[in-house]
Write a structure and sequence with these properties.
13 strands; 4-stranded antiparallel β-sheet; 367 residues; alpha+beta
Length: 367
Amino acid sequence: MLPRMATTHELSITWARALGWRLERQLLDPVGSMSPAEVVRRLGAVLSMDESLAELAVRTRRGSSRAGELREAHADGSVIKVFAFRGSVHYLSPEDGGLFLSLRQAGRQWELPSWVDHYRLGPADWPDFRAAVREALADGPLTVGELGEALARHRAYRHLEPVFAEGAGTLIKPLTWQGDMCFGPVRDGRPTFQRLDRNPRWQGIPELDDAGPRAIAMYLRSYGPATPDHVHYWLGSGLSAGRKRLDRWWAELGDRLVAVDVEGTTAYVVAEDAEALAAARPSDSVRLLPGHDQWVMGPGTKDAYVTPARLRDAVTRKANLVLAGGVVRGTWAVVRDEVTVSWLDEAPPPRAAVEAEATRVAEILGS
């Protein structure tokens, strides 16, 4: 657990008001007008293991959208796709993504004895290995197999060709964490990788102690008011940032954070958001969101104020989410071109609000 700051609360609010403010910050009430790249930047990260869910997560936060815009944003470099939180593939912004990658690489997992023994790459071998990867990608994107073939031309990496032929798995993750490459366009149904430094929007990977406090503040701006435990979940468990580092970065933020009493829980926002939070009102909006949406992934599915305990199993299993006032109240699915809603709560939202949101999502899905 991160160290608690002074508990003199400058503000006291309910969770309904807190979630109302968070819905606005996450472009859910009101729905925003930002570009796909701006939506990704606002959320910090968008899980992209399932492209259809990633696209829906972005489109539900936009008043006007069309299919394929997230893919186009990836193609033009206004978003990047890398391995990030919990080893999964995420869309990040090229402007801020380096903050998260700086934290992710801090654990230096590739120097663990198990990695060194398996891949026969010691810590001293990685600078040259990374340079060889960048050289192989100099002329454009390559599939994992093609990258392995290019590396096998170097005697030092010939032993890795079978690893790449089998997909490379864990080995390629540190190459995205360290900013050497990112996912490129899909070719013939297969992912490719490309040089990240060829993206003119890429801001690079800042020094760790610069990235840490900035990443905490960025999280609080989209997921606040949040507790230190939320920060540890997102940046500690999610990126292996390290408990002691998080402790120190949290303390360094000092007066930039404002303590908020949320029904007896001490949570925090950055100081510049305190006035807007104080003016926030509870939301009566109903939203249909995809499974594993950032609304629940950001605070974590154990956050009972967002995901009631009795609904956690369904949410964890990637069920599509029905939100009412920011709280998960049920699930939804498209069955034979119809939206089917299952209430998992004693008090379902008004039917008219659900029908209006279902109509909006149907238009997004072309259904």
